[in-house]
Design goal:
This protein has 329 residues and is α/β, with parallel strands linked by helices. 30% of the residues lie in helices and 25% in strands. The longest helix is centred in the middle third of the chain and has 16 residues. The chain binds adenosine-5'-triphosphate. Adenosine-5'-triphosphate binds next to helix 2.
Length: 329
């Protein structure tokens, strides 16, 4: 079952967009890729990555994220539809302002990590060769690879290769970073470092488009989300859109003897409460959560615990698709 696409971004929801929206770092219009095998990997998607956003591009393995990213960067030709990168319909003209980590960057197996970076930088006509050594050192340090900079690439672990790919994307200041599954092959510590790096880069003004098939991993650093399933963009918009799509619950624990009073207070606030032992549980609805403890304390209830449980991304995905978050095909 495929749920209808839900788009909350007014720019991409508008019927006929004449060109690029100036506020978008990446934008696509009905972007579609049908492979020769007949497989429709990307099915008419309208992506909208606002400038300054950390856009989490999420979806199970095989949902079409990499193919979308490759089309946006001009590495794969779309079957139909249009895309704009930093406002340009010609990705090649703006690529020097974009750092990309996509599958299989062209690293040389017998060169060291550092030599590989310098080789890439030398091939970039817009990079200043006089500052190459310093920039390479800074990039290697940023991704935690300085200690292994002298090892040949073929001896790198998957995580080290991934870090070198990130370093290559960071060789120059970029307006936009496109990171396809940057945490692939990284251990939990490496994953945390990538999250931190994304946060730092975003704070410095870089727009980040980051894909992941692991929902929880990237979700926490994103300001915006786009959720893919079977080639379609099911949902996109600011992070807060999730809270509107699922059910938020409140859990209140009170001291013994206070349950009946607490339940009465919650009912007056309009909540449909269920109680078990000393815990009360209700759907939050449109109520401002802070009103709950305030009202309870005002009524003399001894509140032991108060928790707002927002819907998880996984739950929203399951609600939207009727499917689990695993490989679809
Ligand atoms: N060159 C190709 N020829 C035929 N089919 C392809 C090709 N590349 C990808 N596909 C198919 O297109 C679909 C989408 O693949 P894609 O790599 O874009 O997904 P993804 O969301 O990036 O997955 P992952 O998280 O595993 O990287 C998959 O079913 C895949 O098998």
């Amino acid at each position: 079952m495929t749920a209808p696409a839900v788009t909350v971004d007014p720019a991409s929801a508008s019927g006929d967009l004449p060109g690029a929206d100036a506020g978008s770092a990446v934008q696509t219009r009905a972007l579609t890729k049908r492979f020769r095998s007949g497989q429709v990997a990307v099915d008419g998607i309208d992506l909208s990555v606002p400038r300054g956003a950390v856009y989490g591009f999420l979806g199970p393995n095989g949902s079409g994220k990499t193919t979308t990213i490759r089309m946006v960067l001009g590495l794969v030709r779309p079957t139909s539809g249009t895309s704009w990168l930093l406002g340009s319909p010609e990705p090649a003209t703006v690529l020097s302002r974009v750092g990309a980590l996509v599958e299989g960057p062209g690293f040389h197996p017998y060169l060291t990590g550092r030599a590989n970076l310098l080789r890439l930088d030398a091939a970039d006509a817009t990079a200043d060769p006089r500052t190459a050594a310093r920039r390479a050192s800074e990039a290697l340090e940023r991704v935690g690879l300085l200690a292994a900079e002298g090892k040949p690439y073929r001896q790198y672990s998957l995580g080290m290769k991934q870090r070198l790919g990130l370093a290559a994307a960071l060789l120059r200041p970029r307006e936009l970073l496109v990171l396809d599954e940057p945490t692939n092959g990284l251990d939990p510590q490496g994953t945390r470092e990538v999250r931190l790096l994304i946060r730092e880069l975003a704070q410095a003004g870089t727009t980040v488009l980051v894909s992941s098939h692991l929902l929880g991993e990237i979700e926490q650093v994103c300001t915006h989300l786009g959720i893919m399933s079977r080639g379609r963009l099911l949902l996109q918009g600011p992070r807060s859109v999730l809270d509107q799509r699922g059910v938020t619950r409140v859990m209140v624990t009170v001291a013994p003897g206070h349950v009946a009073t607490a339940a009465g207070v919650l009912r007056v606030l309009g909540l449909d409460v269920s109680a078990e032992d000393h815990a009360l549980n209700a759907e939050l609805g449109a109520l401002e959560p802070a009103r709950i403890p305030a009202a309870l304390v005002h009524a003399g209830v001894d509140v032991v615990g108060f928790e707002v449980r927002r819907p998880s991304l996984e739950q929203v995905f399951v609600d939207l698709t009727g499917e689990g978050f695993d490989v679809a095909r």
